[in-house]
């Protein structure tokens, strides 16, 4: 029930095409060219007891087994990992997986620990019992760790995959480079988004649901996005109208290259809305940095009534700030008119349950 205008902007020249290019190409080109992160980019985090230069990669394949309703991550091996024991040039590595955000509390999965090696072979399947529609709204986080005898595990790098653009028919092995963690504090300044929204209560050409209207979301531009990558970022905006997190509900802008102040000028249209739905729904806009295979969440906002509830159910995502609620209210109170605002972007991954 959703469509984007103008349609030429909706062509996924950004993420999807680029991504499928990687998915269908001959991976042997990538396999033997694992970039090493230079010595100056060292991952230093409080939770890591030793900091190592991130290097090497994970070889894996993904498969959704419809019969079992299971998502399988087949971890083949890691190659050329960083040595935590630098004297003896070795680590005790294992691989861990998360689906993020994790409102359903599916939790982590881990492989076995392989001792004294920088090139561990696992051939293990990490399994999640999960519906496909849910999976399509998740990011897969695969990370490599050194298992220390004294419980002081060290981070060896991670891979993030946006499963919403993954080709699940592709079950080939991939070997992707590990990356340092992107580190943004919940309180960090994440820039701002200028947008306009309007509610058209009576759309005569809306044939699907008679007597219903449309919500238009015009993402104009963002200012001062956090430069989490050196020297710059490639931002795009993703939109869901919650509680619907299915693919139908998802719309994206194109990816803009090398800018922290992107001008998107992209309008998204959602139909099938009646006035009473506006109290229960919430428009979630998130800004992402497209970084080759991995996407990093920069920040977001949620437009809704901020009541903590949707259709009588307690939900964490109905958490709009006062400014966000104010813009949504202005839209509800002035049908057919654009209302505009410049809103700060914030941490939005904290949603803990019911992303059904
Ligand atoms: C991929 O490239 C390798 C090495 O160049 C080659 O041996 C192989 O046949 C190619 N595979 C396909 C499917 O093109
Ligand atoms: C550490 O071991 C790897 C192979 O496991 C080797 O390629 C690398 O050169 C060694 N590094 C040092 C500093 O000895
Ligand atoms: C990925 O998972 C690892 C291990 O739990 C975690 O340390 C890291 O912060 C996660 N990355 C993101 C982007 O959530
Ligand atoms: C990992 O380290 C913990 C101690 O922190 C130890 O109890 C556990 O046995 C180790 N795992 C393996 C598989 O060696
Ligand atoms: C995946 O394969 C199935 C059946 O083989 C097909 O119906 C579907 O369209 C394919 N999906 C993609 C994204 O290629
Ligand atoms: C935004 O797009 C509209 C057409 O959809 C166009 O008329 C307008 O000039 C654009 N504005 C900017 C700043 O690009």
TrEMBL record:
One of its GO terms (molecular function) is neurexin family protein binding. Residues 54-178, 189-318 form the C2 domain. It is found in: Cell membrane. Coiled coil: none annotated. One of its GO terms (cellular component) is exocytic vesicle. Keywords: Cell membrane, Exocytosis, Membrane, Repeat. It comes from the Eukaryota. This is Synaptotagmin-like protein 2. It comes from Sinocyclocheilus grahami.
